[in-house]
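Q: Give me the 3D complex with flavin-adenine dinucleotide.
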Amino acid sequence: MNRKEQLERISIDSKYDIIIIGGGATGLGCAVDAASRGYKTLLLEKYDFAKGTSSRATKLVHGGVRYLAQGNIRLVREALLERGRLLQNAPHVCHTLPFVVPSYKWWQKWYYGIGLWVYEFLSGKLSLGKTKLLSKPTALVHLPDLSIDELTGGVLYFDGQFDDSRLAVNLAQTAIEQGATVINYCGVTGFSKKNNMIAGVTAMDEISGQSFEISAKVVINATGVFADELLQLAEGHSEKTIAPSQGIHLVVGKHFFKGNTAMMIPKTDDGRVLFVIPWHDQLLLGTTDTPVENISTEPTPLQEEIDFIITHFNRYTASKITNEDVKSVFVGLRPLAKQGNEKKTAVMPRDHVVKVLPSGLIHVTGGKWTTYRSMAEHAIDKAIQSAGLAISSCKTKHLKIHGWSANKSNTSLSIYGVDEAAIQLMITEDPTLSEKIHPLYSYTKAEVHWFVAHEMAITIEDILARRTRLLFLDARAAIEAAPLVATILASVTGKDAQWEREQVDKFNKLAKNYFLN
Ligand SMILES: Cc1cc2nc3c(=O)[nH]c(=O)nc-3n(C[C@H](O)[C@H](O)[C@H](O)COP(=O)(O)OP(=O)(O)OC[C@H]3O[C@@H](n4cnc5c(N)ncnc54)[C@H](O)[C@@H]3O)c2cc1C
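A: Here is the predicted complex, encoded as structure tokens.
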């Protein structure tokens, strides 16, 4: 996957069947779907792939136990089917994860157990494991650091876990392999129209400043929480269609809650669920659901959200954490579809919405990472119908995603799937590339070279936030690794020392938002 080659394609030929705006889960899913059906497809992402919400999820491939409690069986069933498909199509970035719901009253075990049996039943043949009631000692085998006062046992169930931004990069690679043109750092700045109907876009290469006029039979707006900006450009109205809801995550050391099982806290003070999840040898705690007005590429946590997570974690665990224990805090904005005057985002449905607007623009939003494939199928079906394209059916239900590998290794490079062998070969040819970019984490210099050559990484942030996850795992370690990453980037791309310094300064400023002072 080479950005220069992709850019050359739009310079040479600027006519497409389908243009997709936005390189998060939704847009990338659309690009894979459209290209695999044989349409000439272009995806444009203003920043890096998954720079928006799609790198900031809780990283669960799930049906959504909470939606079951709300009685949304259809949504849960659809998401469970998609969960099963994703685990089959991208096993290198997804895996099954055991969860325990602890119970502190005699009836809770049965109450949650029945709900979770229904959850498992709805997944049918794609079930990931048997739901079981646990005695107190067995619950403690799974979660040894659980608070034992009044503990009566728990319920064991299974869901999926994935690495969101790694999957996004792999989807971009898959789309290109299927024939799409996919470009990061290339934002859409305007639309061209014929007879008041959208006939193409103006895009700008954010690196060189060069502009492109590109035509398409149909354009899809998959810009998540930024969708209203594009709708205003296309439709000229200022009505808000997105109700952003903020969710924060805290990352702390794994020693605070040992074991390889996640915990679901079934009812928080605001009536939601909270997860405590092992993730890349750390512990991920989240999330919150706070309606916000301000839409930013770098949303920041509220003190009350941090306190909320710490208080709930400490209530359920023997070890107690404080602000000082937090290695990283990252925040995402849910692109929820606005429902009339409803203000409470926690009660808004998580279903996706696909609409054809008066200008012909296809608008797709809502949903979740788990259902990105079915959202894309729905959006491309609508695009075909609306633009009168020759009908071609969806091919993605069983399409293997870039990196797919039948056998997962147990090395730290296993997340790259089939690409692991190529990274290993780089290390064999130059053993210095096995050196780590930070002494406490497994990421190597070889991986940095790989990201630049094959995964369109341009900045330190691309490498430390989304190709590796160091910024999200340990913001201080990411700051410490930044100068070395800048030196490698500069040496590979022929940049000078001044560029390196500017890159490091820019990254440090950003990374400071990821730790608590
Ligand atoms: C806190 C939180 C936790 C979550 N946890 C889970 C979970 O565990 N499991 C799950 O399944 N789902 C989860 N979700 C939901 C999931 O993350 C989102 O539904 C999904 O990532 C949305 O993807 P998207 O592509 O619609 O939006 P985004 O990822 O935001 O992508 C939109 C893209 O459009 C780009 N863009 C904007 N303007 C332009 C322009 N002018 N030109 C070109 N590009 C542009 C942006 O840069 C951005 O990259 C979670 C969400 C949140 C907020």
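A quick observation: The radius of gyration is 23 Å.
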